[in-house]
Design goal:
102 residues, mainly alpha, elongated, transmembrane
Length: 102
């Protein structure tokens, strides 16, 4: 019984530490999307590749928040997560279509 209580406290404290990281990565996705759009506009394929990898990594770190499985307490971060989720799935769909066409 004590093990369950200690494990519960351990995971809850770990969860509190991850709130800052989740908020930071959700907010960091917005400039990455802007950089991706700017690189797409300029036709810079090297930057497109770099931004794609950053977007993929940060989106996978926040996949539960982006897909709506996990609700964030902050309304602004929740809205940013939904926006990032929509952009991510549109980007993934367009990327798959481009690969199939080529």
């Amino acid at each position: 019984m004590a093990d369950k209580h200690l494990a519960k406290n351990y995971f809850s404290s770990e969860r509190k530490d991850m709130k800052f990281l989740k908020g930071f990565t959700l907010v960091a996705l917005l400039p990455f999307w802007a950089g991706y759009a700017f690189a797409l506009y300029n036709g810079n394929s090297n930057n497109l590749s770099n931004y794609s990898l950053l977007i993929l990594a940060f989106s996978l770190m926040n996949f539960n928040a982006i897909c709506g499985v996990e609700k964030i307490e902050n309304k602004v971060l929740n809205l940013i997560a939904k926006l990032d989720g929509v952009l991510f799935f549109i980007w993934a769909f367009v990327t798959i279509i481009q690969l199939l066409i080529k």
